[in-house]
Amino acid sequence: MALFEATHLHKRFGDQVVLEDISLAFEEGQVSGIMGPNGAGKTTCFNVLTGRYKPDRGRVTFDGEDITGVAPHRIVAKGISRSFQIMTLFDEFTALDNVVMALPSTRRRGFDGLHALDGDSAAQDRAAEIMGRVGLKGREGVNAKSLSYGERRALEIGVALATEPRLLFVDEPTAGLGTEATARLTDLMRELKRYTTIVVIEHDMRFLFALADKISVIHWGQVIAQGTPDELRANRWVRRSNIGELANA
Ligand SMILES: Nc1ncnc2c1ncn2[C@@H]1O[C@H](COP(=O)(O)OP(=O)(O)OP(=O)(O)O)[C@@H](O)[C@H]1O
Asked: Which residue range or ranges hold the ABC transporter domain (predicted)?
């Protein structure tokens, strides 16, 4: 059984059918990719998988438990985290404190815990370790607003990792990144795979083909192809579209 499964998901907005019978399975310890052209329904699919939207039909299970329509904060508490396309950092806080605030131990203490951020050396050590994992060693004391765009993306992933997820959803991590930063991010994601199961939505096919164990291609609200990067490269539909070409580039 896969760690996370979605079966026969349907979602419509008014008259527009956005997801039509989508089934996906994400295996523990793997990086799974979701790709597809603009407007294909990827973000809607992510929102259904992570509890922001309730599907009209279909079922989502995590570790065998039915989580269909469960509220996002409850889903996070079950061990599923999401790194957002929209930045969600506290700009005036240091990079390290952004990570400290996301740690379960800090969150358990509630808002008062924030006053004691400096005093909790265990939390500081744990956050520093996470900073290292996402390639931000040495940047702990820098305010989030002073980090480069690529560093902020890495910090966001660090914040998501700090919640100690069993499954991490990452939404378009390469958006706005140049070639060099994208290459660094590829290395970072490969490293993260050692600690957690990852699902990535991505436009950048080269990035996804270099990273993912399995990729699902969504188009017109349906899964039109699925497989390992090699299987997809050999897929007739993929070969005839420009996806295969770009993935081999
Ligand atoms: N809340 C909403 N209300 C109405 N229509 C929506 C809503 N969210 C998405 N849609 C529509 O659903 C379709 C799929 O959008 P979605 O954002 O899921 O695609 P996408 O593959 O993520 O595209 P992109 O890569 O451009 O973000 C689009 O036609 C969009 O206009």
From this structure: 4-245
